[in-house]
Write a structure and sequence with these properties.
By secondary structure, the chain is an alpha/beta fold. The protein has three domains: about 1-45, no CATH class; about 50-255, 3-Layer(aba) Sandwich (Rossmann fold), CATH 3.40.50; about 265-320, no CATH class. About 45% of the residues lie in helices and about 10% in strands. A seven-stranded parallel β-sheet has the order 3-2-4-1-5-6-7, with helices on both faces.
Length: about 325
């Protein structure tokens, strides 16, 4: 056994060998922010970076789960292995799912090339869980060709899917005119592909025309013009065209040389996010441990001292303890 293989945690070795139960357990640890997961997560990182990661976002009720099911079937017919991460909004207090329907997808019986994981956002802004990036990366290292990430959009603030996916699909439906209008100030900026779902309803052609006009007006970094595709789960229709649009964008990332640039930006954001998470935890620990800081809080409540001054003291305390 090589030195590198010997230093690989057993759970990571089992995942690389295709152990689905080991993968599920590690994802649970990651979702719970369990420090015990870090050695395996670190050792699996070099095995990631090969999967196509597609994010689907948009307002409630546009049919994203149905689209994911149809895309899953389309990709399996092509012989591709698929991982699915379904993220639902959840309470920032209890961590429970607000919608109450986190499990909406089922793995086809006996299909070992499909892995579906549902998780709650745990109150995290933007609709994307803190652990989503790492879960996607674990599915990538596990050997999935494609990872589909479905998240419930929350209007203009839901742009974090673009920090997870290599291609972001924004899903709308014909009768949500106000939602389509809001794209100019929010989701429009992160869409690589627009999907007008429920195209069997009146107004689908008009919505597609509007989105096409908008994509002609606004330029995007790197020169990509978002594709506009119409789909329907009745029939169904447009699923192959949707995946073709995704594949075109993935090819563009390679031919234009922008994939590495985007990867650097995403990883920079991820590293800074991990630093903030660690610093926040350390700050909370120091604040709870030091009686002097608690007395400062009392003085802030009494308006005897301002929050900035206490924050400076807290930073100074961390520097001393470091």
């Amino acid at each position: 056994m090589s030195r590198r293989a010997a230093s690989t945690p057993p759970v990571a070795r089992r995942i690389l060998q295709g152990d689905r139960q080991a993968l599920a357990r590690l994802i649970t640890q990651v979702e719970n922010r369990d420090p015990a997961a870090l050695p395996a997560v670190r050792s699996l990182y070099p095995h990631s970076g090969k999967a196509t990661v597609v994010g689907l976002t948009g307002p409630l009720g546009v049919g994203k789960s149905s689209l994911v099911n149809l895309l899953l079937g389309h990709l399996r017919r092509q012989g591709r292995s698929v991982g699915v991460v379904a993220v639902d909004p959840s309470s920032p207090f209890s961590g429970g799912s607000i919608l109450g329907d986190r499990i909406r997808l089922e793995r086809p019986p006996g299909d070992s090339d499909v892995f579906i994981r549902s998780m709650a956002s745990r109150g995290h802004a933007g609709g994307v869980a803190l652990a989503t990036r790492e879960t996607v990366r674990l599915l990538d290292a596990f050997g999935m060709d494609v990872v589909l990430v479905e998240t419930v959009g929350s209007g203009q603030s839901d742009v974090e899917i673009h920090d997870v996916a290599t291609t972001s699909v924004v899903v709308v439906v014909p009768h949500l005119g106000d939602e389509v209008q809001s794209l100019k100030a929010g989701l429009f900026e992160i869409a690589d592909v627009f999907c007008v779902n429920k195209a069997d309803l009146p107004g689908a052609d008009a919505a597609a025309r509007y989105l096409n006009e908008m994509t002609q007006l606004g330029g995007r970094n790197g020169g990509w013009r978002p594709a506009v595709v119409q789909t329907s789960t009745v029939g169904p229709k447009g699923i192959e065209e949707l995946w073709t649009a995704v594949a075109r964008h993935e090819a563009f990332l390679d031919s234009s040389g922008t994939r590495q640039e985007l990867d650097r930006r995403r990883l920079t954001d991820e590293i800074l996010g991990l630093v903030r998470e660690r610093v926040d935890a350390r700050l909370a620990e120091v604040f709870a441990r030091e009686p002097e800081l608690q007395s400062f809080l009392d003085r802030v409540v009494a308006r005897e001292i301002d929050p900035h001054s206490v924050a400076d003291r807290l930073v100074a305390e961390i520097r001393r303890s470091a």
